[in-house]
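Trying the structure run again after the queue cleared.
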Amino acid sequence: MTPLGHHRFTILVVDDDTSVLDCYGKLLGRSGYRAITEPDPRRVLMNGRDLASVDLLLIDYKMPEMDGLTLLAELRRREFRARCILVSAFVNDGVRQQAKHLGVDRILEKPVDVESLRTAIAELIPTAGGGRAAGLAG
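Done. Tokens:
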């Protein structure tokens, strides 16, 4: 599918599974978003200067180096205010409560289908509404 001009929207994807990163990166890129993928949450913290351009954070919960909510807590402490989607196969009340406290906008349970991701992004990037984010293709 042809990109629909989302190039001004940057989505940072953090997941320790490189095959997942590759899939999200391709999907978002084909849809016209600028996708930044990172398998190591510690490197996100080291490269803080690049975070100013991030409109949306798509982050895995369970990672070996640092879980997604720990990373998000540190980013929030540093005044990172981008919208956030947490992806996890390990969702329980504790995770939901901590995610809410940190300002996670959506929790998507694995496996994530393209339609759920497309809808979440369209709802969270306000100017992408009205069909603009509907360009996410499978």
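The radius of gyration is 14 Å. Worth checking whether this holds up in the mutant runs.
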